[in-house]
Design brief:
flavoprotein; three-stranded parallel beta sheet; FAD; alpha+beta; 170 residues; disordered N terminus; oxidoreductase; FAD/NAD(P)-binding domain; monooxygenase activity; three-stranded antiparallel beta sheet; FAD-bd; 5 helices
Length: 170
């Protein structure tokens, strides 16, 4: 005896239609900033095809101190990058707020470590950038590719670059 389906739905109607692509997607990432590199690392881990297009001719990890909230840290752990991230980060359990004259307005203490197992961390942007950049295969990062237009339809997306070249994705 077969198991009944919910609401008497035929399982044959749940099969993929011929309009659904069975080919794996190819993702185009515009920009090799922190977000683009983080997405590249996620796609690399998932085995999804992608290419990163960066407008500059040379990568320069810029920036100063930044804070990462505990909610993003499990993603770094899933990528296998958590321990390396923590090697150049400092846990921040206290946050103080000041006026423009440096008068203390208030202070909060974090309890997230006890509740969810991860703390808010402070770190310099350049080591984070270097870590994410170095995990991406070099052939997937395309430099001097300033995006000038994008066309999207039911077939996918096509991007045009300032140098006259183009790329297609899904």
């Amino acid at each position: 005896m077969s198991n009944p389906t919910p609401n008497n739905v035929s399982t044959s109607s749940l099969a993929p239609s011929s309009a659904v692509s069975v080919n794996p997607p190819h993702v185009i990432i515009a920009g090799a900033g922190l977000a683009g590199l983080f997405l590249g690392n996620l796609l690399e881990k998932a085995g999804i095809s992608y290419a990163i297009y960066e407008r500059t001719a040379q990568i320069k990890p810029l920036g100063s101190i930044m804070c990462l909230s505990p909610n993003i840290l499990p993603a770094f752990e899933q990528l296998g990058l958590y321990e390396e991230l923590m090697s150049f980060s400092k846990v921040s359990r206290v946050c103080s707020f000041y006026t423009d004259k440096l008068e203390l307005v208030g202070r909060t203490e974090s309890t997230t470590g006890k509740m969810i197992g991860y703390e808010r961390i402070l770190l310099a942007r350049p080591p984070l950038y270097d870590m994410l950049f170095n995990k991406i295969p070099a052939h997937k990062i395309n430099l001097s590719k300033k995006l000038v237009s994008l066309e999207q339809d039911h077939k996918g997306v096509k991007v045009q670059f300032e140098d006259g070249s183009a790329a297609e994705g899904d």
